[in-house]
Amino acid sequence: MDPYAEKIQSLSQISRRKFLLALASVTCLGLSEQSKAAVGLFEPFTFGYVTDAHLAIGQPDSYKMLQESQLFLQDVVKRLNEENVAFTIFGGDNVEGPGRDDSNWQLFIDVVQCLNNPWNFVLGESDISGIAPVDKMRTYGPDWKGKGIESTKPYWSQDPIPGVHIIGLDTSRPNSNTGDFGRAQAEWLKEDLQMHQRRFTIVFSHHPLLPPSPFDSGPPWDDYIVPTGANAREIFGTSKYVRLVVNGHVHVSKVQQENNIWYVSSASLAVYPCAYKIFRVTPESISIETYHVSFPALIKKAKNAFISCTLAYKYSSSKPATFAALAEGTRLDSDVILPLAAGRPAQAIDKKKQPKQKKEKAKQAEPKREKQEESKPPPQQPEEKPESKQDTPQEPEAAATKKQPPAEPKSNADQKTKTKVDNQSEAPKSGESNDK
Fold this sequence. Notes:
By secondary structure, the chain is an alpha/beta fold. The chain has a single domain (3-355), classed as Metallo-dependent phosphatases (Purple Acid Phosphatase, chain A, domain 2, 4-Layer Sandwich), CATH 3.60.21.10. The chain has 16 helices and 13 strands. It has helices at 3-12, 16-27, 33-39, 69-83, 103-112, 125-128, 136-145, 183-195, 229-236, 296-306, 310-315, 322-328, 331-334, 353-365, 368-375, 412-423, and strands spanning 45-50, 87-90, 119-121, 156-161, 164-168, 200-204, 242-247, 254-258, 261-265, 275-281, 285-292, 336-339, 347-348.
């Protein structure tokens, strides 16, 4: 059995005890019976979402950081491994064209194979565009087959963990920013949703099916959407289990809701703000956390390129930099808790608390002796000068008169305590869409 299949099999095993725990967790949420049925039965899980990586070999930068694309992707893979996500989805425009002899795509596979969790992908226009026509299934079909997906079409579905169903739609159209959602795929989607009821369902597409502002307006913004996106949303509405739809393509971070379904547009990895998302899902809510690559100087370089692109000036000819703020999104677009119960508003996550928590954990791991030293005032004499026991009083007030003899003789207990402290060694002291 191949490694990917082994991971899927291990994630698909569920014991009676886990089943009862999941049932209890849903029961304790205080949701209505209708809400419980719509959520489905599953254990909390986490998944990563990375889109518009535009991985390329030997191509110069534009507003896309193509020369840095491999570095960015490797950085994300490392972080997702640390987070121990259940699975990862790559949202299209994964490569800047397959490359000569599919070299870009092969490099992409080499990098993401380092993930210690199952991964899958959907296609964007960059994946299938180029001078020579790209056969979707010839180039990408073998990799879906390797994930247990037997399909002759570039759209798919699978159950990555018990009680959870994910769908990967194909909205890609070669050499075009406009997305596509045809009749054949619509019929397949209806059948798939009908066959996989009672499972919490997430849909992934490269193009936005519910366009965020300003892409929901006229030219040039409507060149980057799916003209038949409303048809897909109508089909989603026929299933009460579809609760989350995620896309990339437009390079902005935005959260919207329609008919109890959350639509999330994610920013690009290779384009400012060089970001990706981690979703934490429970039967009660969906938490979204947005992260950036670990290279601040390169993010700044990406921002300067981004606010100089054509769409930035079309968005605001006088203040093109405001286009960067659109890409970043607000707190309710980037770090947010989305309730699954109807009628409840989204809540922003205060990420400022997270660094403090990390510092507290680091302090707990330090020896107690280091904490004691931090609480004392700095010594009055250079560290290289040894101090005798008589010259190191226990009280800070005596620092200025340490040459004077103590007012009262010290007890034997005091001398033993002081000797023990002095003999301890000091603990060591501890970083235009613009697919467009």
